[in-house]
Amino acid sequence: MADFHQNGNIATLHNLRTRSADELTHELQTFATTRKISLILPSLFSELEGDALPNILNELAQVPYLHRIIIGLDRADEAQYRHARQFFSVLPQEHVVIWNDSPRMKAIDARLTELGLAPKEPGKGKNVWTSLGYLMAQQDSAVAAIHDCDILTYDRDMLARLIYPVVNPAFPYQVAKGYYPRIGEGKINGRVSRLLVSPLLIALKRVIGDRDYLDFLRSFRYPLSGEFAMRTGILPDLRIPSDWGLEIGVLSEAWRNLAPKSVCQVEISDAYDHKHQVLSPEDASKGLSRMSIDICKAIYRKLAADGTVFTEEIFRTLKATYYRSALDLLDCYYNDAKMNGLSVDRHSEEKTIELFANNIIEAGHVFLEFPSDTPFIPTWNRVHAADQSLMSDIIDAVDADIAEFG
Fold first, then answer.
1. Full-prediction pTM beyond 0.90?
2. pLDDT: is 366 or 286 the higher one?
3. SUPFAM superfamilies per the record (predicted)?
4. Phi, psi values for residue 97, rounded to 5°
C-alpha cells in the first residue's frame, strides 16, 4: 500500500518504507518528555486465554514512550481479576486493570443510573468510555491511543505509527485513525467494511444526494478499524456509542467537533488479522448481523441530525441500490484477490450481502419506530456537571480494588 494518494477530505499518512521504526520510536521518546502518552486496551477476560494478547504484551513491554497503559477488563469474576492483574504484570510501564464488574465499579454504575447517565448496555463502547473517564480523571496525559486485544499480527511499530500524527507538536491532527489491508489465511477479510459500509455509503450518495458527511466517511480506507489516537483535549465532549456503532460514532464525532484538517488516517500495517465474528444470520442480536444493524442506525441518525429526511420508501430504494452496488464491488474484490493469489468465496459473500441488504431495511424500521432513541453514552463533561466527584471516585474505586484483591 505504499502510494502517496490524497483524497482531499482528510490527510492520509502513508508508510513509504523510507524510515526505520527505531528512528520513529526515538522521536516519539523525545515528544513524550513533554506530551505524555497513554494507551487504552479494552479487553474481555476470554482474550487473556487467546493467542493474540500474550504477543501484544510482549511487544508493548518493549515500548519506551508510554506513560500509562489502562486495561478495561470485562466479564471477569474475582478470581479472574486476580489472574488478570498477574497476567498484565509483565508490562514494565505504569499500568492499571480496571475491573468493570467489581462491586465498587457496579456502585459507580448505580450512581450513573440514578442520574440517568449510565450506558445502556455493556460492551466495548462502555469499556472504552469508562477507561477514558479514568484517563481524564488522572489529568496527566496529552495523547490517548486505543486498540483491540485480539490482533493476531500485532507489533509495536503499529502503535508508533498510529500515535505519531497526534503526538508530533508540529502536526495539526487531533484524531488519527489506523488503516491496513485485512488479509489472513489466504483470504481477504473485513466483510462488514467491504460488503456493508463501502457499498452503503455509495448507495446513500445515490439515493439522498451529496452530503459532506458521506464524503468524509468515504475518505477512510478502513472506517471500522478499532485503532484510534486522540489528543486528550477533545475527550470530555466525545460521545461514545455503547453498541457496535462505536467506530462510526467516533468518526461522526470527529466530523461534528473538528475541522477536517484536524483528522487524519495513517497506514499502520502491511497485514492485519484478528478474531473474526460469526455472521449469525439466524439471530439479529449477535455477530455481524447485529453489528450491521447498529452501524446502519449510527449512520442514519447522524444524517437525520444533519437534516436528512428518511421514509420507508427511501429505505426500500436504499436497499435495492445498496444490493447492486455491493455486487459490483464484489467483482472488484474477487479480481483483486485473484490477482494477489488470495481467495474470495463468492457464494458466501453474496449470502452476506443479502443479509446486510435485509438489515439495512431492519435498521430503517428501528430508526423510524424509535426516532428519538440514541445509543450514545453521555459525554464526560455532562457526567462531571451532574456529579463532580464521580470521576475521582472511579480512581478511588480502582485503587481500592487493587488494594483488596491485589
1. yes
2. 366
3. Nucleotide-diphospho-sugar transferases (SSF53448)
4. -105, 115
150 burial via Cβ count (<10 Å: 0-12, 13-18, 19+) = buried
Strand partners, 40: 70, 146
Spatial distance between the Cα atoms of 199 and 193, rounded to a whole number of angstroms: 9
pLDDT 10s digits, 119-157:
988 889 999 999 999 999 999 999 999 999 999 999 999
Output the nine-digit C-alpha cell for 355. 443479509
CA distance 393 to 108: 8
Burial of 328 (0-12, 13-18, 19+ CB in 10 A): exposed
> Hey, what amino acid is at 328?
D
Report, in angstroms and rounded to the nearest whole number, the Rg of the chain calculated over CA atoms. 21
Residue 248 in grid coordinates: 462510526
CA distance 376 to 48: 28
Distance CA 252, CA 68 (A): 27
> Hey, which residues does 376 pair with through a beta bridge?
241
**Residue entry with cell 509483565:** 90
Q: What is the pLDDT of residues 276-286, one digit of tens each?
A: 677 666 766 67
